[in-house]
Amino acid sequence: MGDDAVKVYTYSEARQRLASVLEQSRREGQVQIRRRDGQLFVLQPAGGTGSPLDVPGVTAHLRPGELGAVLRESRQTGHRFWRNTRRQPARRRARR
Hints:
YefM-like fold
C-alpha cells in the first residue's frame, strides 16, 4: 500500500476512539469511516484554522510618532468616507 494510504476505521472503532480519529484526521488530512452496510465516509478537518486577523506585516518606513499623526489626521478628516450607520429619526414636515 504505502505510507500515504488513508486510514479506514470501522464505525465502531471511530465511535470508541473519536478523539484519536479526529487527531489523526488533523495530522494526515483525512480518515475514512466504513459502516457495516459498506457506506464509506471521509472525515477531514475544516480549513482555515488561523484568525482572519492574521495578516502579513508591511514595512512603512515611518519615523517615530509619524504613525500617530497619520491616524489622528485620518480620524479628523475620514468621517466623510464613512457611512452613517445610525438611523436618524424621520423628520416630520410642517403642515401649512
